[in-house]
Write a structure and sequence with these properties.
The chain is built from 16 helices and nine strands. It is an alpha/beta fold and 358 residues long. The radius of gyration is 22 Å and the shape is globular. The chain binds adenosine-5'-triphosphate (ATP) and magnesium ion.
Length: 358
Amino acid sequence: MLFDPRPKKRREELFDRNKEIGQLINTKEPLTLLLGIRRVGKSSLLRVTLNEIENGFYIDARKMYFDSGGWITSESLIREFESALNSLRGSVRGKVLEALRHVKGVSLSGVRVELSRDVRLSDVLEALNEVGAVIGIDEAQYLRFYGARGGKEFLALLAYSYDNLDNLRFILSGSEVGLLHDFLGINDYGSPLYGRSHGEVVLKPFSRELSIEFLRRGFSEIEMEVPHEVIEGAVNFLDGVPGWLVEFGRKYAEIRNLKGSLEYVFRQAKGFLNGELKELERRSPRYVLILEAIAMGRNRWELIRDYLASKGQNVPKSRLAELIKNLEKMSWIEADFGSGRKRYRIIDPVIERVLMER
Ligand SMILES: Nc1ncnc2c1ncn2[C@@H]1O[C@H](COP(=O)(O)OP(=O)(O)OP(=O)(O)O)[C@@H](O)[C@H]1O
Ligand SMILES: [Mg+2]
């Protein structure tokens, strides 16, 4: 069902995205990045892809980060691997268990795999290499909170696998695109991954036509006839981010009112984003002021600076540049050079509206 709010897991549940699935499955790159803004469908695409591959593992770095209160411990990483191993099904499961049998710190109790606290993940990866596997890590930029050195130990593991384990592939997804790049440090001499080539798949919101088709199909699945103006109205407001389209479809099916449903999606988005904005605010309250300025059309450098000043925040030039750069890296905003001047815009129009109403 298209309007199911959870990340999709099977190909038949996913709308479009065949091209991207093909790219992720067929690539020979040991490392591929799957990038895209919030709610655009990264987790769904990653899960569907891993499901299509016989030996695909799904690991959620963002979940580990929140579950362990703002960092990622080696214990939580081991537990994630353990549960990914235990979620394997079918004939591949037997092969993987066989390969793991002799790894120190791995015990097989009945049908469950258990990893002890001192298991070495490099040993587990070596065993997986014997059978071949694709390891997908969702919101992988959160792994910078792993260990005491900004995730370097994890990168070293990845680099080791990249160089030595020919039958393993990694897909790292991220919504904070610049942060993920920074974390991996492929162009950074000091990073364990320095100089490794990688593939990239960038997931975009649906085009207008596809968004309309998405809603049509979603409603037809639940056998509802919906006037064309309603579908157009929704897409005009929400654009092509599937996460918002799904929320809309569900609500409209319940109340059958365009305005009310859009207001509902908007409230949902607000709740979701307020959590995100709080996280940002914790890092610096100025981030949110900058976003507000841009959402209100004060989208040039000097205008942003004036807006901050009007709120009692006189920020030195270099610091403001850094804050803006970080917002770009986190995929909240992008720069636009139209008409010869650099302007910033909020990437997702729903987020823009939420910011305007704060
Ligand atoms: N191609 C698609 N077909 C059908 N539903 C989709 C598709 N892409 C996303 N969705 C739906 O949109 C919502 C958001 O998807 P998903 O969680 O995969 O996105 P995400 O980019 O991982 O979001 P987040 O940034 O919150 O992690 C879910 O309800 C999911 O079912
Ligand atoms: Mg996700």
